[in-house]
Amino acid sequence: MRKITAFLVAMFMVSIAFVHAQQTDSTRNQQRPSQSSPSTEPTQSDQYKSGDFDEIESADVPASLRSTLQRTQYKGWESGKVYRSKNNSGYWVTIGTGSDTRNYYFDRNGRATKAPGPGVGKSPE
User: Fold this and answer.
1) Based on C-alpha coordinates, what's the Rg of the chain?
2) Span 103-116, pLDDT tens digits
3) pTM of the entire structure?
4) Are 46 and 116 in contact (CB under 8 A)?
5) Are 93 and 74 in contact (CB under 8 A)?
6) Which residue, 16, 56, 65, 94, is most buried by CB atoms nearer than 10 A?
7) Which helix (H) or strand (E) holds 54?
């Protein structure tokens, strides 16, 4: 009987140690909030940083981009917003409002390009 009692006490102590180790480990690994304020500008260096664009009027859209925008998938671009990169490396077109907003990206020659990296695609306003 003594051996069984000792065994149960030992198992109880081991169980408490495991629970304590799990609690200590989980609090140690929690992420702490950053002291610095988050940046609103994307950190990835590509041609579509939102601060690097100026809005242009639909009448100022170059002919090469205008011909691309005549395709059915870009229907309604005239009522959307068109942005030109400050270094003339590309264009950004937003169509729609709210959750129905669609973003399209074009190179300087008016050809559609892939969407840029994370953090990009927010209105530069």
Assistant:
1) 28
2) 999 998 999 988 76
3) 0.53
4) yes
5) yes
6) 65
7) strand 53-56
What is the Cα–Cα distance from 111 to 11, expressed in whole angstroms?
Answer: 70
Which amino acid belongs to residue 90? G
pLDDT tens digits, 52-93 = 788 999 888 999 999 999 999 999 898 899 999 888 888 899
Q: Which domains does the chain have, with CATH numbers?
A: 50-113 (3.10.450)
Each as own residue / partner, the long-range contacts of residues 117-122 (CB below 8 Å, 24 or more positions apart, any chain) are 117/42, 117/44, 117/46, 117/48, 118/42, 118/44, 119/41, 119/42, 119/43, 119/44, 120/42, 120/44, 120/46, 120/48, 120/49, 120/50, 121/48, 121/50, 122/50
> What type of residue is 109?
N
